[in-house]
Amino acid sequence: MYIEQEKYNEILRLTPIVCVDVCILQDNKILLARRNNEPWINQWCVIGGRVRKNEKLHNAVYRKIREETGLECFIKEIVNVEDTIFDTGVNGIQTHTVNICYKAIPVHNNQEVKLNSDHSEYNWFTKEDIKPLKLYQYVLNCINKAL
């Protein structure tokens, strides 16, 4: 469902946004992508985004996986539920999100990741690879609970 920019900005100012995020795991590694948009622009993050009106959570998860990575995955379980508040969020507006993070695994090993325009690059990281990265606490919480 498309929301006109002015209406969406008003929604951001008035209410929390429900989002789904996904820790995609393969061979003891997690897929992270570098974001092109606020919040957390240019940061490594799990994939995800907002839930649409009348969209079931699991359908939103499958949609976000497909849209952002092109992967076909199985959803395993919910690993984290947290809210986040960003001083500078979408369209420069303070944004409050309620995030439900899932763990998923690709249906087939070695599928090709095809990022959409939300991300500039991706990588598969081991738990050791993640330690030197400066990830946001919410992302770390999701990863730690998924691995």
SSE topology:
Layout (H helix, E strand, L loop, with lengths): L4 H10 L2 E10 L2 E7 L8 E2 L1 E4 L6 H13 L3 E14 L8 E12 L12 E7 L1 H4 L6 H10 L1
Parallel strand pairs: 1-6
Antiparallel strand pairs: 1-2, 1-4, 2-3, 2-7, 5-6
| Overall shape | globular
The total strand number stands at 7
Give the overall average pLDDT: 94
Number of domains: 1
The description of the largest β-sheet is: 7 strands, mixed
Please give the share of residues in helix.
25-40%
What's the helix-strand series?
HEEEEHEEEHH
CATH C-level name: Alpha Beta
Radius of gyration: 15 Å
CATH-wise, what's the superfamily? Nucleoside Triphosphate Pyrophosphohydrolase
Provide the structure class. alpha+beta
N- and C-termini, Cα separation: 34 Å
In terms of DSSP E residues, the strand content is 35-45%
SS element count, helices: 4
- CATH 2nd-level architecture: Alpha-Beta Complex
Low-confidence spans: none
CATH topology: Nucleoside Triphosphate Pyrophosphohydrolase
What does it look like?
- The protein is of the alpha+beta class.
- The protein has a single domain, classed as Nucleoside Triphosphate Pyrophosphohydrolase, CATH 3.90.79.10.
- Helices cover 25% and strands 38% of the residues.
- It has four helices and seven strands.
- Strands 1, 2, 3, 4, 5, 6 and 7 form a seven-stranded mixed beta sheet that branches.
- The longest helix has 13 residues, at 57-69.
